[in-house]
Amino acid sequence: MDSLITAAARALAVGDPLGALKRVALRSDAPALALRGIAMAQLGDFGRAKALMRSAIRAFGPREPVARARCIVAEAEIAFASRDLGWPEKALDAAQATLESHGDRVNVAHARYLAIRRLLLLGRLEEAQQRLAQLDVEPLPPALAAFHELVVAGMAMRRLQAKSARAALARARNAARRAAIPALMAEVESAVSIVDAPAARLMTRGAQRPIVLDEVETLLESKALIVDACRHVVRERRNVVALAKRPVLFVLARVLAEAWPNDVLRETLVARTFRVKHVDESYRARLRVEIGRLRRALRGIAGIDATPGGFVLTPQRAREVVVLARPVEEEHANVLALLADGESWSSSALALALGTSQRTVQRSLDALAAADKVQCFGRGRARRWTTPPLPGFATTLLLPAPLPG
Questions:
Q1: Predicted local confidence at residue 346, as pLDDT
Q2: What pLDDT score was predicted for residue 329?
């Protein structure tokens, strides 16, 4: 590599994209195109970054397989940063194999972490855990070590393991400081703020309060009977009754749990469960049927007793009944939860992560946009959605440098 390419790569390695562009902005050779693409990605112009990276891949040609493979890894990360989760995995796997055959361990590890992080966003925790267990952290440079700990923390948070998440973030913070990359340090701090933010609401005996992830973990280990409105289950220690596919029963369980230890009037149960304003005898008969089904579902952990006015939930062993709800319960809350990471998402990526149709996601986005809760930029397939910008959000782009050459 010539001196300008070397200087630009070093600038990108310390998070200085403008310094890199000053050296290669007017050049169109393959290494310069790749570095320009990385710089534009770090500046947030993902569309231009993707185009430059593809030009670099074509410019390198088949005689430079390592440089092409590194550019493919960079292109995959640009897609990840722009939340384009549909990027081809086979191309990344092929690039990883090429890099591994040439002994480029750093970029091999980077490619693997990209694939694992994508699995986390898609909710495929078991597969992500298996791949993460196969990686060796010891030989990694500080930037990738921080990347590893962020992945570990993300997995721990999804498994509601607050202590493990905080320990991983502490290690990530130390590694980021050693790497001395401002964007990386900002991302670690952003992850720390997520752990410290309210993760759910605790509702019991007519009162409610926000709780953080540590309190959620403690609650799940307690002996209380928990109606979990985040996962639509009823749990008592290791006994878990899944009601996600039986929404009527879950609504009944939640209404009864919110009122515990008091009973709930039959008219209230009918109105909240079936969402009707006028209660007639047919709805009362339907309520009796659903109450019977809920009794059978909760057999072994709780009973439902009739009272003169309605019904009351009676735990068999637990001394406390609580409801664990999301911090904000509103329509389209799942979409808002994904957009809360500060990154820009395509509607197709949101649909992929939520396991629903793109049209359903689009209707949610249109409703949220009308309420000024989300905003979009770009047109057609290039359109991206994000929440209104907040101070302190840093890019998740951790492209390794040097790349080409």
A1: 82
A2: 65
Residue segments in the chain with a per-residue pLDDT below the cut of 50? 389-405
Q: Give the Å distances, CA to CA, from 295 to 77, 105, 250, 311.
A: 50, 57, 12, 11
Which has the closest alpha carbon to 162: 229, 221, 216? 216
Residue-wise pLDDT tens digits, 322-340: 999 887 766 777 777 777 6
Task: Give the C-alpha separation, 197 to 36, whole Å.
Answer: 37
* pLDDT tens readout for residues 86-116: 777 888 889 999 999 988 888 888 888 888 8
- Alpha carbon of residue 363 to chain centroid: 21
**pLDDT for the residue 173:** 93
Which among 168, 148, 191, 141 is positioned nearest to 14, based on CA atoms? 141
| Rounded Cα–Cα distance for residues 102 and 79 (Å) | 25
In angstroms, what is the C-alpha Rg of the chain? 25
Which of 9, 34, 31 has its CA nearest to residue 20?
Answer: 9
Distances (CA, A) of 341 to 54, 148, 149: 27, 18, 17
pLDDT at 405: 40
pLDDT value at residue 257: 92
* Residue 244 CB burial class (10 angstroms; 0-12, 13-18, ≥19): exposed
Peptide bond connecting 400 to the previous residue in cis, omega within 30 degrees of 0: no
